[in-house]
Amino acid sequence: MTLDKKTPPEVLSGGSESSVMSVCQVGSAWGCLHREEAMFVQNPNTNRYRCLSFLLAGMMAVTSLPLPAFAADAAAGEEIAISAERFPDEQFRNYISEQLDSDGDNMLSATECSEVVDLNVSQQGIADLTGIDVFSKLQQLDCSGNTLSALDISGAAQLLQLNCSANPDLSALKLPEKNPTMKRVYAYLLQKRHIDREILSYFAKAGTIYESAEHHNIVFAGLDSEGKIRHIHVKGSCSDGRSFRLNQEGSEAAYGFGYRGTGNRLYVFEAPIDLLSFLSLYPDNWQENSYITLNGVAEHAMLQALKDNPRLDTVVLCLDHDPAGIEACGRLAEILVRNGYGAVKRLQSACKDWNEDLKGRYGEETIPAQEHPRVMECRAWTEVLKEVTESINIKYANRSYICRYYQDIYNELKKGRGREQLMDAFDGPGMLLTGVLVRCMEKEGIALGRETSAGQILENLSKRYQSHKDKGNFNTRIRQMQATFEETLEVFDTKDLEQKENQELLARKCMSFAMECIRAHIFVAIDCGEEQMKPAKQNVKEQKVEHQEGGMMLCSQS
User: Fold this and answer.
1) 131 and 213 part of one domain
2) Contact at 8 Å (CB) between 143 and 167?
3) Residue 224 lies in a domain
4) Which residues have CB under 8 Å from 134's CB, separation 6+?
5) Are 382 and 352 contained in the same domain?
6) N or C: which end of the chain has fewer CB within 10 A?
7) 554: exposed, middle or buried (Cβ count in 10 Å: 0-12, 13-18, 19+)
């Protein structure tokens, strides 16, 4: 089949959200052990929104891994204390407490351990990963950019991908010996992956793609600005459905496989195959641009490429079209803006990644794109909110009704411990509270001479939602709702709302509060398991008591 020569499609402006860290699939030594390549399929939750007519009626009124003991505990279903004994490294222990202990009880349940499939602990200052074996289902591990001095993955039975680069005390980079020919590499990349022969030959002649002598793996070399090899990414060349990926020990995370062009645009990819597939799809004048692979989703190679080439002023993020890629795009876009790169764009593949798009050109079955379930839930909920908000008279956009519906959420939570009660809280008074907040924003906008409708405000809220920032357990969601609630009341109670600057301030506080309501709903709809409910709701009750005892009425009517 002959492919049409095409240039890249129009890019989407603005960075979006993506994370798992598909970095390197593990094999023993140089890959003589091949494991099945991981495939990630996420089934989004189906959520029903309850009838709100009765409420509306009222309203209108590489680590050290000492093994088996910890893993055995998890397998036996015993809870594991997040202690110095189990996790000696303080930074690693803190990460587990903050990111993996979903119910905040300082214990890891069997469920919490088994849910850890992808783990990114890069750039955390970790020197020892003792205890990581409790995560028995771990398939992907990124521990790059730490201070590890040893790496033992013998207890990680299901580990498929590993990135341990940029740990200075690990061994120095050793280049795999070159095979005299590249027959296996060419066979795999041309026949299995459908990479364009001219594209492949260019990189082979440049010496940045070659075949290893020992196991006939594909070697992708990442160069620095002087042409020195600073990073090695190894990928298996088997065509039987099995594969592995590995970032060579001693590789520097600041470098990756890529190409330096003459223009001002940098295209960023997760892996070398993605980059080669993109160039095969859109080969016209490809050498005008620059390209870099991250070997995962960490930002280091991207920032180094920008530093080494001052001509680059536009970055196009071309990560996988799946929840991990979406979150990574959002995070990388923020990093780029902080570093002074305002021209950040996002380009999505039609399928899960660029090689899947390329396979589709050849009539092969492809893995479809996966939208982020939280993003989709946000869009769905804000669409329902539009109808609810339109039913709310703008005269009810005041402090009294904000307090009323905030209190109603907690009244719903007190009724039971199940997920249904939480859904009732956020599909009922939670929607009404958010609707009132949106009306408040609309009201203040009118006072400021703006004509922004409630529907437009909700569209803006939906676009502002960033899945990569939406982390933490249910307790976190409630604490942040409580904080934004108090900040909003403070503006009502202490500011002169006839002044323009205070009207602006109130609108901002209402927007923050509404966003926290949306995040809390998304958590309940998508992320919350039954085991997370009990301690979360108990904590909410205690917060409410403490708040009342502090002398502030939650529902003071004025």
Assistant:
1) no
2) yes
3) yes
4) 70, 71, 73, 74, 80, 86, 108, 113
5) no
6) N
7) middle
Same domain? For 449 and 506 the reply is yes
| Ramachandran bin of 285, using left for φ above 0, alpha for ψ from -120 to 50, beta for the remaining angles | left
450 shares a domain with 429: yes
Identify whether 276 is part of a domain: yes
Overall number of domains in the chain: 3
Residue 337 has pLDDT above 80, yes or no: yes
pTM comes to: 0.67
Those residues with Cβ within 8 angstroms of residue 542's Cβ, 6 or more apart along the chain or in another chain:
none
Q: Which DSSP helix (H) or strand (E) runs through 300?
A: helix 300-308
Q: How far apart are CA 45 and CA 15, in angstroms?
A: 25
What are the tokens at 243?
């594969």
If asked whether residues 309 and 457 sit together in one domain, one would say no
* DSSP secondary structure letter of residue 50: P
- CA 218 to CA 209: how far, in whole Å? 7
Q: Residue 230 — φ and ψ, nearest 5°?
A: -120, -10
State the SS3 of 68-107: HHHHHHHHCCCCEECCCCCCCCHHHHHHHHHHHCCCCCCE
Residue type, 156: A
Q: How confident is the model at residue 145 (pLDDT cuts 50, 70, 90)?
A: confident
For residue 529, the enclosing domain spans 373-549
Angle at 10 between CA 7 and CA 13, to 5 degrees: 145
Q: Is residue 557 part of a domain?
A: no
Residues 246 and 272 in one domain: yes
The conformation of residue 220, written as its DSSP 8-state character, comes to E
Greatest CA separation found in the chain?
A: 83
Contact 229, 173 (CB under 8 A): yes
Q: In this structure, are residues 298 and 122 in contact, taking their beta carbons and an 8 Å threshold? A: yes
Closest by Cα among 400, 424, 398, 396 to 410: 424
Are 200 and 209 in contact by the 8 Å Cβ rule? The answer is: yes
Residue 49: name the closest of 437, 537, 430 by CA. Answer: 430
CATH code assigned at 195: 3.40.1360.10
Whether residue 237 contacts residue 220, with contact meaning beta carbons closer than 8 Å, is answered with: no
User: What pLDDT was estimated at residue 153?
Assistant: 62
In a domain, 47, yes or no: no
pLDDT at 529: 60
For the cut 70, the answer to whether the pLDDT of residue 42 exceeds it is no
**pLDDT tens per residue, range 510-556:** 999 999 999 999 988 888 764 444 444 444 433 333 333 332 333 33
254 and 210 fall within a common domain: yes
Q: Which of 337, 361, 385 is the last residue of a domain?
A: 361
**Close Cβ partners of 303 (under 8 Å, ≥ 6 residues apart):** 254, 335, 339
pLDDT per position as a tens digit, 416-436: 557 777 888 888 899 999 999
How high is the pLDDT of residue 4?
Answer: 52
